Structure formats: C-alpha cells, structure tokens
Inverse folding.
C-alpha cells in the first residue's frame, strides 16, 4: 500500500462499504472470484479483506485498479476511480520527475534529485546557524519561541529560526530518505554501511501479467479455508491480502497487516498449505537484514506513513512550513542584498 492507495480509498468510499443484512451470510470467496472473472473487468491477482463487517471485498486487477464486491449479495459495486488514479499518478510523476515517466533518468529526475540533496545540505547547515551561540535561558527562548510585535527583518529572522529548529528533524528525514530513493549510489551506500547484501532487480508485487492463465476448475484452493486459517494467526489483524495461486501445487501467499497500510514493520507474510491452511513459512519485518529494514523505512518514512497517522501529520506540517522557511530565507537574503547596494552607493 502507498499514500496514493489511501487517497484512492477516500475517493472510493461510497463503494468500499456495504449495508450488513440482519442475517449476514457471506458469499464464499471462490464464488465472489468467479463473479469478478465473469464480468470481464480484468484478471484478478489478489483478494483483500478488512476487519470490518461492513467492508466490501477488494479484488486487485494487477496494475489496472481494484474492483469492489458486496460480500453478502455477490454484487459488483464498482471499480476504483480511473480519473483519480490518473490524477494521483500525474501528481506523483511531477513530484518525483517533474512530469517525466517514473523510472526514467530524465532531466526532471535529476533536477528533483539534486534539489533534494541541496535542500538536505541546507537543513544540516541551518541547524548550526539556528542553535543559539549563547547558552543561556534568554537566548534559548528567543530561538525556540515565536515573538510578537516584530516586523520586517526581525520578524523574518525569528520565524526562520523557530521554524527551522522545530522542523529540522522531520525535514531532514524527508530529505535524506528522498536522496536514497533518487540516487543509486545512496541506495547502495545504505546497504554497504549496514553490511547487508544489496537487493536484486525490483519485482512488482501482484504483477501477474506474464504468469499462466487462471487455473482450471477444481485446481483452485478453497479461499474461505485460507482466510479462516489466516485470521486465526493474528487476532489483531486489520487487513488480510491473499495472492491468487497461479500454480496448482504451490502454497498460497498471505499478508497480514496490523497497521495502517504504510507500516511495513506491522506486516507478516505467510505461505499457507493450499489444502490444510498449515503455515509453511512465516516472514516478519525483523527477519530482514538491517539494510532491508532501513530501506523499508526510507520508503515509508519519506511520507511519514511509517509512524502511522501521527507520522503523516508531522510530515505534512513539516512540508507545509518548509514553504515559510523558503519565504523567510529569500526575504532575509533580499534584505541583505538591498543593504549591500545601499552601502555601495
């Protein structure tokens, strides 16, 4: 899950929830799956269930979207908004590459990457300047508290210092994680510093476009049994995602998430026996190397999702007040430049 998927959840809120009948009798997952396949919307690749009686069942269609199905009436409620997906994809491309295709090493990519690196350097240098030189209570209070009645240069200086001190840490996290995602050398350096092996080429989760076609009738596992077994593994589950089996003899891959969707430290992956539901393998966040765990933090720490809703609020506020830092910094620079011109005259 990504920040964009959470935004799409809000857009699709009208089809994400259903009315629970007085005598709720959920339709078997295999029947729900057959309904989606007969609709011709696309090839389902995964089933996601939320721990809410009124939540609809989500069927991932690879990269093309998500279809929502009523678990009690077996009715297709709709497909995730294509316009919203297009909008958020465009916003993400502009944020990462100034509109160029993602993954391309275009001039937009390098402009964003270098700007982010320089911004991180400014934050580090700013910390040195923002810390008061005099170590006394009065100087410390002037550095960390907003002062009223100021105007002009004094106001800009106060705002710049106070905001810089309080937001230095989250802005530094956002900037440095962006550097790791933007530069290959920074990503490799992360693994080398932790003594971990660098990962191989990225493999998109849920991309079954080149896999074999759907299984023939009778070869598919009983997904009701799979979900029942998965729910018993962790009573605190919030979302369970089952990847559809594409091999008649392979185990079923299940992910149990107890977090908000952007917290990899709260996800556990299982391989379950397709017939008995027995656990064949369990992989937790702690099972990964230090480099892998830090790389996961890089991805979700950049957006604040790693810290849940509180982390996202902090990241959003820090990003917002960074605009004030830019304004006050430019204002102070312009005032110094104007003063230098007056002295020359």
């Amino acid at each position: 899950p990504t920040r964009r998927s959470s935004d799409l959840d809000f857009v699709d809120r009208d089809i994400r929830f259903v009315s629970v009948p007085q005598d709720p009798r959920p339709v078997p997952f295999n029947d729900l799956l057959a309904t989606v396949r007969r609709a011709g919307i696309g090839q389902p690749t995964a089933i996601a269930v939320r721990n809410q009686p009124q939540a609809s069942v989500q069927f991932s269609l690879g990269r093309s979207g998500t279809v929502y199905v009523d678990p009690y009436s077996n009715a297709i409620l709709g497909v995730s908004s294509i316009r919203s997906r297009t909008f958020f994809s465009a916003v993400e491309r502009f944020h990462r590459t100034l509109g160029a295709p993602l993954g391309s090493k275009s001039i937009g990519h390098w402009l964003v990457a270098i700007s982010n690196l320089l911004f991180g350097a400014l934050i580090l240098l700013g910390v040195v300047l923002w810390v008061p030189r005099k170590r006394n209570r009065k100087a410390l209070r002037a550095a960390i508290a907003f002062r009223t009645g100021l105007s002009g240069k004094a106001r800009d200086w106060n705002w710049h210092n106070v905001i810089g001190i309080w937001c230095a840490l989250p802005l530094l996290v956002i900037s440095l994680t962006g550097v790791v995602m933007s530069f290959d050398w920074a990503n490799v350096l992360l693994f080398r510093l932790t003594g971990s092996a660098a990962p191989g080429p990225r493999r998109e989760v849920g991309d079954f476009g080149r896999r074999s076609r759907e299984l023939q009738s009778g070869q598919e596992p009983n997904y009701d049994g799979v979900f029942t077994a998965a729910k018993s593994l962790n009573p605190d589950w919030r979302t369970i995602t089952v990847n559809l089996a594409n091999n008649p003899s392979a185990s079923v891959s299940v992910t149990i998430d107890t977090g908000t969707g952007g917290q990899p430290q709260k996800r556990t992956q299982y391989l379950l026996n397709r017939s008995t539901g027995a656990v064949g393998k369990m992989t937790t966040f702690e099972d990964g190397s230090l480099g892998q765990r830090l790389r996961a933090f890089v991805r979700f720490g950049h957006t604040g999702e790693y810290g849940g809703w509180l982390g996202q609020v902090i990241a959003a506020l820090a990003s917002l007040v960074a605009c004030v830092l830019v304004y006050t910094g430019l204002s102070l620079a312009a005032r110094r430049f104007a003063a230098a011109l007056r002295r020359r005259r």
Notes: The first strand starts at residue 46 and ends at 50.
